[in-house]
Structures are given as C-alpha cells and as structure tokens.
Amino acid sequence: MNHEASNDRVLARExxxxxxxxxxxVYGVPKLERGxxxxxxxxxxxxxxxxxxxxxxxxxxxxxxRFPAWESARRARVxxxxxxxxxxxxxxxxxxxxxxxxNEIHKRRGSxxxxxLKTAPLEEARGFLASFKGVGPKTVACTLxxxxxxxxxxxxxxxxxxxxRLGLIPDKCxxxxxxxxxxxxxxxKRYYEVHINLIRLGRQICRPRGPLCEQCCLVDYCEYYTxxx
Length: 229
Ligand code: SF4
Known about the structure:
Layout: H1 3-14, H2 16-27, H3 38-47, H4 53-66, H5 70-74, H6 78-84, H7 91-109, H8 122-130, H9 137-148, H10 157-166, H11 175-185, H12 191-204, H13 223-228
Bound molecules: iron/sulfur cluster.
C-alpha cells in the first residue's frame, strides 16, 4: 500500500465528524420513513439502477398501479411487467430480473413476505438478498436500511464519487470494498442521515463534472479541492 495515500485517508477519516456536522448544518437531519415494505424497496432500488430518480419513481408507481400485489406480478407475463415499467429505462432487462426475483423468493420462502429480514441475523439477511441475480451491495443496503432499519450503509454513484474526492476511500476501490470501508467509518446511527445528505450534496454541488467547490460545505476537508489549488 502507498503510505502517503494511506496517511491521507487517515486524515480524511479524522475529518469525518466535521463532514457529518457540516452536511447536517446545510441539509438538516432527514427522517427515515417508517413502515416501508422490504420487497417494495428492493424492487424500487432495482428500478433505480442506471436511470434518474424521477424515471425510476415513475416506473415503480406505474408497476404498483398495474400490480398492487407482488403476487400478481409474479404470475404475470414478463411483457406486462415490461410495459408497466417502460418509463424507467432498461425495461426489457429489468422486467426479466424482477419476475425472476419474485419467482426465486417465492420458491425459497414459500411466499413474497420479506418481513423476516427485519429480525434475521444481519449477515444472514445480507447474504439472502445478495444471493439474487442483479442485487448488488447498494440494493442490499438500501433494502436493509430503508425498509428494515438495519445498520447497513448504502453507497450510490454520488456517494462513491464524493467519498473518493474527499479521500475517504481509495481511487481504485470496488463497490464491495467501498461499502465495507464507509460502513466501518460512519457511526451506525448516522447512516441514513449521511446517506441522504451526501446524495443531496452530489446532486446540487459535488456534480460529476464541474463540482461547485466554492459553494461546498466540505471544501475544508476535500483532497480533490486541495489538489486543484
Ligand atoms: S470541495 Fe468540491 S470536490 Fe470536494 S466535496 Fe465539495 S464539491 Fe466535491
């Protein structure tokens, strides 16, 4: 390992309390919505892959209107699911994945009820979700954190970019490794808050191209910004 880079990461991690505090001062403390259904969140997160929030929300709402019960989607033709989610992008691929997922859950559990994820040992819950095709670390973490209130930190594309720019994770870092590192360094009770606030920062300020560093509440702790000066 490059010692200079590793020391920089230690420094970045020492700034984490200030990073969390500054994000909170700007974006507040978001409240986790209670009572979400784990299967709803799982499918909503699959629909959010490689598209915008607005598109995936539209696709999910349309899917729920067409199939108010997931059991009816499981019994439907893939083409009907595809038609329902066409506004979300990659509808052909995602409809196949969703139908496969529903069938596989039903086969293994005898129903589509995923409430057991709220109380199962965490590694078992994580392993169960991760065993399905097309369900990566972010989808696992979103389902467990949002719908089951379990301590798993989800990293989307915004958080991945910001964490690298801040120097919290290495430039070359797999999705799994990023989830592990960020999960270890952020206090568990702040997972939801930090997840939501980093996404807000990523959408408004720390954009993929042309980040607005002069307006950023994390400018004092950012490796990327320091390297540009
Ligand atoms: S200072 Fe710039 S690069 Fe660093 S987190 Fe803020 S917007 Fe992103």
